[in-house]
UniProtKB/TrEMBL annotation:
It is found in: Cytoplasm. Its main location: cytoplasm. GO terms for biological process: tRNA threonylcarbamoyladenosine modification. This is tRNA threonylcarbamoyladenosine biosynthesis protein TsaB. It comes from the Bacteria. Gene3D superfamilies: 3.30.420.40. InterPro entries: ATPase_NBD, Gcp-like_dom, T6A_TsaB. It holds the Pfam family TsaD. It comes from Vibrio splendidus. One of its GO terms (molecular function) is transferase activity. Belongs to the KAE1 / TsaD family. TsaB subfamily.
Length: 233
């Protein structure tokens, strides 16, 4: 995979930008929950200057499509669309949950990951992923937003040990610690743009980049029940 992908993400408390060109990664990341709009564009300028490329040299712009903070997701897609329109570039939306799974592999080599972001309102954004040999991630559970108590009541044990990533584990530990699956700690709390850029390479290679005006966020608020994917019973 050799596409030049610029990724931006503001869907959670973390704010990040990354440019991936072949084996080169130029990245910025900072936990700044109230300063996304101030920090994201300067980060874009920094990585482009560090890589010595112009925005028009990029093949596509990836963005954190959610789930996450409503405001944060809107900021991210708005910035990405502005950049894409200005440079006539296609866009690729990347799941924040899948990006955290990739981050856990990049940092700690984890291949079975249970992601849970604090969704407020006593709910978590939830999904589990298993890594394939080619670097793709297969969703074991469909992404959803659900009360941790309902997740604990429905989730069944399996033979894997799942790395716990995201803010939801600590925020709702009373219920999350009672899940039937085997888990282990993993120090990944937020998604990062460099992992989104990596995952976007697959979508770009498969021709799944879309025009800026067709890019859409993912909120999940209308999906309130945890659901196992077909064929994963």
């Amino acid at each position: 995979m050799s596409a030049k992908i610029l990724a931006v993400d503001t869907a959670t408390e973390n704010c990040s930008v990354a440019l991936v060109m072949g084996d080169q990664v130029f990245a910025r990341s900072e936990e700044a929950p109230r300063d996304h709009t101030k920090k994201i564009l300067p980060m874009v300028d920094e990585v482009l200057k560090e890589a010595n490329v112009a925005l028009t040299d990029i093949d596509a712009i990836a963005f954190g499509q959610g789930p996450g903070s409503f405001t944060g997701v809107r900021i991210g897609i708005g910035i990405a669309q502005g950049l894409a329109f200005g440079a006539d570039l296609p866009m690729i939306g990347v799941s924040t949950l899948a990006a955290m799974a990739q981050g856990s592999y990049r940092k700690f080599g984890e291949t079975h990951v249970a992601t849970a972001i604090d969704a407020r309102m006593s709910e978590v954004y939830w999904a589990r992923y298993s890594r394939e040999q080619d670097g793709r991630w297969t969703a074991v559970d469909a992404e959803c937003v659900t009360p941790p108590s309902e997740l604990a009541a429905q989730l069944e044990a399996d033979s894997e040990t799942w790395a716990k990533v995201g803010t939801g584990w600590e925020a709702y530990a009373e219920h999350m610690d009672t899940l039937a699956i085997n888990t282990k700690a993993c120090e990944v709390l937020f998604p990062e743009a460099q992992d989104m850029a990596f995952l976007a390479q697959f979508a770009y290679a498969e021709g799944k980049a879309v025009a800026a005006e067709e890019s859409e966020p993912v909120y999940l608020r209308d999906k309130v029940t945890w659901k196992k994917l077909p064929g994963r019973e």
